[in-house]
Amino acid sequence: MEFDFRLPDLGEGITEGEVVKWRVKEGDHVEEHQVVVEVETDKAIVEVPSPRGGKIIRINKREGGSVSVGEALMTIETAEEAEAAAPEKKAEEEKRTRPPSVSVVGALPEKEEVTAAPKARALAKKLGVDLAKVAGTGPGGMVTEADVKAASEGKAVPAPPRPAEAPRPVEKAAEARPAGQDKYGEIERIPIRGVRKAIAKNLIASQKTAAFVTGMDDADVTDLWALRKREAKVAKEKGAHLTFLPFFMKAAQHALAAYPNVNASVDEKAEEIIVKKYYNIGVAVDTPDGLMVSVVKNVERKTILDLAMELQELSVKARDRKITLEELKGSTFTISNYGTFGGTYATPIINYPNIAILGTGKISERPWVVDGSIAVRKILPISFTFDHRVIDGADASRFVSRVISYLEDPGRIFIESA
User: Which of 112, 145, 160, 246 is the most buried (most CB within 10 A)?
Assistant: First the structure.
């Protein structure tokens, strides 16, 4: 018996991914729950196990190809013993003896053939609808929200008959085409995929939903510079590389506590502002594959040293592509420290669904007025982009001023920390 293994619902609202690496090939025999493929979804690479054992007779998606939830990744010929069993006995035996199928983020429904969009699953749970009894009318027989609603109202329409599928050609991976010409000269075509595709998707979502405004200011971080330099040796002895970023994060966290509407998101459908009472700060990390935003959870509970060590770990995992989906999710506010690469001011784009982002530029020496006299000071350029639907210009200015007050007098960070 042939079984089409379809990309399962991976949670987190994920609807598609890219096949990064197959761990098996056509003709191989696989065990139930054996990891067979690596799929990149929303910047993270996840390992996907096979829900059944048997011989792989066809791989439908090549490395580099995209795949949507519900699409067939590969076709398996199941064991002869299972094929010989009566259908009723086989179904009962599987239900009683086979452990629940497990995806990369948790347990999946026992019937792997039932595929549903994430929103449809949530709605089915809310309405008490058994997905196994719903005829899916979406692509590949996927159950949609409309199908769930119809089933809950007793108006479900049988899915249209599905014709026997002709053998489908194996999808070829998109490849760069270095040789090419336009009317002006030689060109190179580079496919938009993987991390770059995820970045593009998130940035477009952000630009379409928010009313962007960016303000800029400067902070005299001379005292902070001296503090970091003085404590860097102690941090190194504890295994941490102490940068300015942990101080920026704590300054932002205290300012967010003072101006809670900055630490929020917008529920478009309900027309509500959701103010977060916790502080999960996303940090943009430059990797060979593109920019990733790793998330440090509960910054309010961590010390400067804790943050330094966690940032160090997350940066390595992001660059090595070992970072998990959970470590990329759940930010309430974001910091982009482009000063590391020599930038000064910028108009950083909000990391959707956050409503604000703080950009920090390169610290440089400048002449500065201090107590009526000109002195050479360490100056940090700051850019702050916010969603004007939620934050007024006056509150945005007050927020940035509060951040600056912590950076110019770093002792306040420690005095006000729990």
Answer: 246
Tell me the CATH class for 2-111. Answer: mainly beta
How many Å is the Cα radius of gyration of the chain? 26
Residues in the chain: 418
Identify the band that residue 188 occupies on the pLDDT scale cut at 50, 70 and 90.
confident
In tens, the pLDDT along 8-19 reads 877 666 778 888
pLDDT at 121: 76
Query: 277: which DSSP letter?
Result: S
Residue 11 confidence (pLDDT)? 64
Q: Enumerate the CATH 2.40.50.100 domain ranges in the chain, comma separated.
A: 2-111
Per-residue DSSP letter, 51: S
Which residues of the chain does CATH 3.30.559.10 include? 195-415
What fold does the segment set 114-160 form as a domain?
A: Dihydrolipoamide Transferase (4.10.320)
Residue 332 and residue 77: Cα distance in Å, rounded?
46
List residues with catalytic annotation: 388
Q: Is-above-0.90 flag for pTM?
A: no
Render the burial of 379-402: b for 16+ CB within 10 Å, e for the rest: bbbbbbbbbeebbeeeebebbbeb
- Coil, helix or strand for 96? helix
